[in-house]
Amino acid sequence: MEIIKVMPRGYCQGVVRAILIAKKTVKENPNTPVTMLGMIVHNQFVVDACKNLGIQFVEDTNQTRLSLLDQIHEGIVIFTAHGVSDAVKQKAKDKNLICVDATCPDVIRTHTLVQQHVQDGDVIYIGKKNHPESEGTVGLSNRVHLVTSIDDVDALKDKNLENILITNQTTLSMLDTAKIINHCKTLFPDATIAKEICNATTKRQEAVLQLKEVDLLIVVGDKRSNNSNQLANIANKAGIQESYLIDSVFDLKEDMIRNHKRIAITSGSSTPNSITDQVVDFLSTYAKTGVWQLPTEVNVQLI
Fold first, then answer.
1. Is 133 assigned a catalytic role?
2. pLDDT in tens, 230-257
3. Fewest 10 Å CB contacts: which of 56, 165, 227, 279?
4. Positive or negative torsion for Cα 4, 11, 174, 203
5. Which residues are bridge partners to 262 per DSSP?
6. Angle (deg, nearest 10), helices 44-52 and 13-28
7. pLDDT band, residue 114 (cuts 50/70/90)
8. What phi, psi does 77 have (nearest 5°)?
9. Is the pLDDT of residue 28 over 90?
10. pLDDT at 237
11. Is 137 in contact with 115 (CB distance < 8 Å)?
């Protein structure tokens, strides 16, 4: 049994930046309540580690960031790496909250692009429904139209869209996004395209697609993490027969691993390196010894 460590893996720069901002905010404001508007990133281990620093969280997948603000009454509010709309920022200011913005620079770039374009045109935004990044971008203007599938694109044919820009959520599958963009171009041939899948997401997906003679891919990441899910989904396109998305080493079962010859391990960009390293170390030891003995706890190091 061979264990292949896929590179790159672990935190992207946007996640590192968000965590450092959160830690700095708590350290510099020891007597002020600090609340994160949603999950800082989609990884429960990171959220729990931030809670241990004293950060409170308001999160409900059935509510928008705008409505979640109703639960924060004082102190500092941190906007997550996924970004928020201008309406959220304004509401926070109206509530006299101190705003700290941890939005990923790649998301900020997309927001700037969209805000400039909607002044004289429409934006077709390829994204995941109810995802905070999509919510923040679509909330910038009523001229931003969310599409999640080719059927959604077809529904825009009679909308009289003008001067169209096509762009996307930064953590999507580059293959699936390309399919939707190509369909958009058949209906709106004069549209401008601005592919905004972030470099970290692209490199991780490309690394999986380049794997050869691998019969199992293990992705370490939270099931709410879109970029982690995309890595697992792309395995089939890479010719890998099986793939699993796991939170940590404790999700591994010997039946998953037995009878596989070449096992590749990667992780989402919001997964702490320490958790992925623990999976790699455990499976490497198992490959050498054949002994299945899980550790006593998950090794979580925030940064």
1. yes
2. 999 999 888 998 999 999 999 999 999 9
3. 56
4. negative
5. 2
6. 20
7. very high
8. -115, 130
9. yes
10. 85
11. no
Q: For residue 145, what are the β-bridge partners?
A: 124
Spatial separation of the C-alpha atoms in residues 74 and 217, rounded to whole Å: 45
Structure-block tokens of residue 148: 């999640």
pLDDT at 210 > cutoff 90: yes
Burial class (CB in 10 A: 0-12, 13-18, 19+), 160: exposed
**Residue whose pair of structure tokens reads 């045109």 in the numeric block:** 121
Look up residue 137 and give its DSSP letter.
H
Determine which one of 133, 135, 162, 242 is catalytic: 133
| Nearest C-alpha neighbor of 110 from the set 196, 193, 202, 184 | 196
Distance (Å, whole) CA 190 – CA 24: 46
User: Model confidence at 10, in pLDDT bands (50, 70, 90)?
Assistant: confident
Q: Angle, nearest 10°, between helix axes 226-234 and 199-209?
A: 20
63 with 16: CB under 8 angstroms?
Answer: no
What's this model's pTM, rounded to 2 decimal places? 0.92
- Kindly give the residue spans of alpha helices, DSSP state H, lying in the chain: 13-28, 44-52, 65-68, 86-94, 105-117, 132-138, 150-154, 174-187, 199-209, 226-234, 254-257, 273-289
- Each residue of 118-148: pLDDT tens digit? 999 999 999 999 999 999 999 999 999 999 9
| Count of alpha carbons within 13 angstroms of residue 14, beta-carbon side | 25
Rg (Cα) of the chain, in Å, rounded? 21
